[in-house]
Specification:
ABC_transporter-like_ATP-bd; 13 helices; 6-stranded mixed sheet; 4-stranded antiparallel sheet; 332 residues; ABC_transporter-like_CS; alpha/beta; 18% strand; binds adenosine-5'-triphosphate
């Protein structure tokens, strides 16, 4: 059963450089969330702040009753055991084979006998589809396999929360699709809270239950996928649709004149991606994701607060059983 992460008013700077300010969001337990944002907006800094590797100037991040923004080093050591982290490059030790890489946290943090270490490592490697590759060195395998090995290592201490920093970086579209499916399958099997940092539009549209967006030192929005995928918020709409038109520029921020000219053009653009894309289901044979029902109940109880087009899209996406459950009549 995953654990909730409650972030409130978080602000982080390095010297005079403010990275982001006043970030508040809740990663609901057992749900998959994604944090999007252009390069350099501080997504990796955000992950590191959640686990207390970096300390913010203001705000709190409560995980299992502990505030990782202000707790003691000892408390931090304990609360970090709740986390499994997949770093951007997999962060594997080049001189160790995959078995030893995956076993590393178990040998470092537990006193399990080697037979138990072996059992757990083989189980996690099977979970990520790496059975048979135990003796390979990181330099001998593909980028996709390295990511999966990093994921297996993130799983060995049975984390309640998995943080994935750009799990798709350097992967081709097919491997990214496999990885997206793997994250959904892991969530179905483990009911773990997952936060994914990504630039990948496809992954963002089909994997997470909740989506957040960092831009210009602020969290633009964070909410359930139905709300975010139908949002007219310009930054979010530009990013999720991969458009050049919008506030996000090639370098940093566009000037106002360029922005106004593009907004005029934008009205003429037909947006084929707009709307609630179907979310990935677990692979056949796996249990359903427990988070789906919990989240749908939450979305339906907050439905009246959403913009009308979002409400319509949500209702249109309900099946007959959902309509009965939430007391909504058959479609006209
Ligand atoms: N330890 C540090 N000391 C000083 N500045 C840092 C440190 N870590 C990150 N930064 C700065 O914080 C900013 C945000 O970096 P971060 O890596 O979090 O961005 P990002 O959104 O993850 O980018 P990308 O998508 O390209 O990986 C950058 O300007 C970076 O130089």
């Amino acid at each position: 059963m995953g654990v909730e992460v409650a972030v409130e008013g978080l602000t982080k700077s390095f010297g005079a450089q403010n990275i982001w300010r006043d970030v508040s969001l809740v990663l609901p337990r057992g749900e998959v969330s994604a944090l999007l944002g252009p390069s350099g907006t501080g997504k990796s800094v955000f992950l590191k702040t959640i686990i207390g590797l970096l300390r913010p100037e203001r705000g709190s991040c409560v995980v299992g009753g502990v505030d990782t923004a202000s707790c003691s080093e000892h408390q931090l050591y304990e609360v970090r055991k709740l986390f499994g982290v997949l770093f951007q490059d997999g962060a594997l030790f080049g001189s160790m084979n995959l078995f030893d890489n995956v076993a590393f946290p178990l040998r470092e943090h537990t006193r399990k006998p080697e037979s138990e270490v072996r059992r757990i490592v083989l189980e996690k490697m099977e979970l990520v589809g790496l059975t048979g590759a135990e003796s390979k060195l990181p330099g001998e395998i593909s980028g996709g396999m390295r990511k999966r090995a990093g994921l297996a290592r993130a799983l060995v201490l049975d984390p309640e929360i998995i943080l994935c920093d750009e799990p798709d970086s350097g992967l081709d579209p097919v491997r990214t699709a496999y990885l997206s499916q793997l994250l959904i399958d892991l969530n179905a099997q483990l009911d773990t809270t997952i936060l994914i940092v990504t630039h990948n539009i496809n992954l963002a549209r089909t994997v997470p239950d909740n989506i957040g967006m960092l831009f210009r030192r602020e969290l633009v929005m964070f909410g359930p996928r139905e709300l975010m995928l139908t949002s007219e918020e310009p930054v979010l709409a530009q990013f999720l649709n991969g458009r050049r038109l919008g506030p996000i520029g090639m370098t940093e921020e566009k000037d106002q004149a360029a922005l106004a000219a593009e907004q005029a053009q934008l009205r003429a653009v037909t947006d084929t991606l707009y709307g609630i894309a179907p979310q990935l289901d677990p692979s056949p044979g796996l249990p359903p994701r427990l988070a789906v029902r919990r989240r749908k109940d939450r979305v339906m109880s907050a439905l009246h607060q959403f913009p009308i087009p979002t409400q319509r899209s949500v209702i249109a996406s309900l099946d007959a059983a959902d309509r009965t459950r939430y007391g909504i009549g058959a479609p006209a």
